[in-house]
Amino acid sequence: MNSDLKNFILNQPDVDDESVVFTVRLRLARNFRKYPFPHQMGEKQAEQLVEHVIDAIKNFSQDTPLILHMKDTDKIIRQVLVERHIISPEFAEDSFGKTLIWLVQSGLKILVNEEDHLRISAFGKKNEIEKLWQILNDFDDNLSQHINYAFDREFGYLTSCPTNVGPGLRVSSLVFLPSLKLTGRIKVIFNTVCKLGCIIRGFYGEGSASIANFYQISTGPALGKKETEICSEFDAVLSATEKQELSAMERVRTSSIKELIKKFFDRIYDSNEGISSDDAIKGISILIFGKNLGIIKVDRCTLKKMIYRILPGSIQFEMGRLLQEKERDILRLQILRKELVGLYV
Question: Which domains, from first to last, does the chain contain?
Answer without folding.
Answer: 23-249 (3.30.590.10), 254-339 (no CATH)
